[in-house]
Amino acid sequence: MATLDEHGREILDQTPVSVPFKFERPEPIHLRLRRQIIDAMVAAERDGEHETVEDFNDFRIEGEPDSYDDSRSLYEEDEFTGKVPMEEALEVARQEAEQKEREHYEELRKKYAEPNQQTTSAGDGSEPPKAAPEA
């Protein structure tokens, strides 16, 4: 039953209440992982399976070629020339691009060189050209 004061407000019970079952806070995940790693290292050392740093950093698989082997296979080379077809195609494309670039610059040079020659040939260069008379 609730207890009320003279203004009609409820007076709360000040008796401490606890959960009726036993509760333990779980172990934090970082401590659990640390404990599991230490347990695994101790068990491996005890069983004679302790791994050295050199073994730990060795990622090679016995009987397989190294992954960084960059030698060309038979399918990548032309059997007559010994060249790689892709390299030949890239060289041809590079030469074509250089030729187009040279032609483009030659057109630009001609286009912008002509007006400059006309303005300098109109006078002796000491005076600016005069305006046309108005009608």
Distance between the termini: 115 Å
Low-confidence stretches: none
Strand composition percent: under 5%
Task: Tell me the total number of β-strands.
Answer: 2
What structural class results from the helix and strand content? mainly alpha
Whole-angstrom Rg: 45 Å
Overall spatial form: flat
Biggest β-sheet strands, sense, barrel? 2 strands, antiparallel
On the 0 to 100 scale, the average pLDDT is: 78
Topology as a string of helices (H) and strands (E): EEHHH
Count of individual helical segments = 3
Spatial ordering of strands, largest sheet: 1-2
As a percent range, the share of helical residues equals 40-55%
Task: Characterize the structure shown.
Helix content is 44%, strand content 3%. The protein is an all-alpha fold. It has a two-stranded antiparallel sheet. The chain is flat and about 110 Å long.
Provide a quick synopsis of the model:
The chain has 135 residues and is mainly alpha-helical. Helices cover 44% and strands 3% of the residues.
Summarize the SSE layout with pairings.
Layout: E1 3-4, E2 10-11, H1 29-46, H2 53-56, H3 85-121
Antiparallel strand pairs: 1-2
List keywords for this structure.
2 strands; two-stranded antiparallel ribbon; mainly alpha; 135 residues
